[in-house]
Amino acid sequence: MLSFPILSEILRKRRFLSRVLDDCLCDIESIDSFNTYKIFPKIQKLLERDYFRYYKVNLMRPCPFWAEDGQCSIKDCHVEPCPESKVPMGIKAGSSNKYSKAANTTKEIEDCEQANKLGAVNSTLSIQSKEAFIDWARYDDSQDHFCELDDERSPAAQYVDLLLNPERYTGYKGPSAWRVWNSIYEENCFKPRSVYRPLNPLAPSWGESFYKWLEGLCLEKRVFYKLISGLHASINLHLSAKYLLEETWGKPSWGPNIKEFKRRFDPVETKGEGPRRLKNLYFLYLIELRALSKVAPYFERSIVDLYTGNAEEDAETKTLLLEIFRDTKSFPMHFDEKSMFAGNQKEAKSLKEELRLHFKNISRIMDCVGCDKCRLWGKLQTQGLGTALKILFSEKEIQNLPENSPSKGFQLTREEIVALLNAFGR
To answer: Model-level pTM?
Structure first.
């Protein structure tokens, strides 16, 4: 994890960034100070907790858009799945959107009863059909999802210990990696093909025409582009911060690579593009910070225990999480999401759905990443941002949550919770 204090010090020394962010009333120094003293130390501690370190993911899903180039053969691309014996019992036994021991037990009983009812209706149904009917019988909130979620019950889905599989440079690059990001930017960021994004090697020449086009977009589509650019910047920063510097006698040495950082972000080497990318990273931070402040009531309810089976640790984890939520609420310059989708209701609803489907498509592109470790962190951070967007546009549902029972108006799966906090931690 690259701390904002380290990043901001580099940026100040090199005068990479102007102070004020676009499309919000916030400056970079305020974000740096708030994160350094209130957020960063606590989020680091939280992500070391069992509830947040184990993430269930399917890294075997095929790319839905093009024939894959084959898996990366570089050893650092490999993800070491967590043996079942190492995963806390409460996490393994838990369902996707129930958190307490009592809720998990209730869920199992409900599923069993539902299966019995289905069997009584038609005893000729296959096991697969019965499972499908159970799925349909449960509350389906897929219309609220901004991401294509993995099926956690798939045999290919495995738990990964995120602390043992950190995001860092693996050597994955070239045409395969470029095609992933090119597809994201060219096909999902509302850009006409006649406008070339900066530094696109296929562009006839680079220039300000891209930003003239971007400024002419509505706020919602500008925000969408900045979030994707900020996510890309975050990933590139971590690759630069944890770079394979040398390998002696089979023991790798990882650390910051300033040359790589400059190649990706220096104003001269990137023809002025690097500072814009970094500002978009700060903008991404603001959006996810705002989402955490808005979702606090969901976790403040007694029904949410963040259950792993270790009662003492579970209580400490929830206490720490609620402290972080209180801190996020105290930030004085939050992004105002109400400035989005504020026009004609019919047009706003249509635009929101368009953005949701574009982002969901990006989450599917993450299954086309050829490096397992890159795919893991790409899927996690995309799901985290998608969860943040889901939260920001579910304000009424969150305000109307029942205190002691699940809500069909708004739910978060455990994987969404883990992704949300880990993405913010990035």
So the answer is: 0.86
Looking at 24, 26, 368, 371, which residue is catalytic?
371
Residues 355, 190: Cα–Cα separation, whole Å: 9
Q: How far apart are CA 34 and CA 327, in angstroms?
A: 9
Q: Which two tokens stand for residue 80?
A: 């070491």
- Facing residues of 56 across strands? 159
- Answer yes or no: are the C-beta atoms of 199 and 206 closer than 8 Å: yes
Angle at alpha carbon of residue 11, lines to 45 and 37, rounded to 5°: 30
Mind listing the pLDDT tens digit for each residue in 374-396?
Answer: 999 999 999 999 999 999 999 89
Nearest to 169 by CA among 75, 239, 236, 252: 239
**Active-site residue flag, 374:** yes
Residue 218 known to be catalytic: no
From CA 330, how far away is CA 342, in angstroms rounded? 25
Cα-atom radius of gyration of the chain, to the nearest Å? 22
- Residue 71 pLDDT level (bands cut at 50, 70, 90): low
- Band of residue 17 on the pLDDT scale cut at 50, 70, 90: low
93: which 2 tokens?
A: 């036994």
Q: How far apart are CA 194 and CA 134, in angstroms?
A: 48
- Annotated catalytic residue within 72, 77, 368, 374: 374
Structure-token pair, residue 155 = 């045999």
Q: Tell me what pLDDT residue 248 has.
A: 75
Are 406 and 303 in contact, with CB atoms under 8 Å apart?
yes
Is 264 flagged in the annotation as binding? yes
| Helix, strand, or coil (residue 132) | helix
Phi, psi of 310 (to 5 degrees): -105, 100
* Residue 53 annotated as part of some ligand binding site: no
pLDDT per residue as tens digits for the range 227-284: 999 999 999 999 999 998 887 777 888 899 999 999 999 999 998 899 999 999 999 9
Cβ–Cβ under 8 Å, residues 294 and 328: no
229 is in an annotated binding site: yes
pLDDT by residue (tens digit) across 113-125? 443 333 333 334 4
Token pair, residue 314, equals 């579970």
181 is an annotated ligand-binding site residue: yes
**Which range in 17-21, 76-80, 148-152, 186-190 is most confidently predicted, on average pLDDT?**
186-190
* 135 or 312, greater pLDDT: 312
Residues 6+ apart with CB under 8 A from 215: 222
Most distant CA atoms of the chain, gap in Å:
72
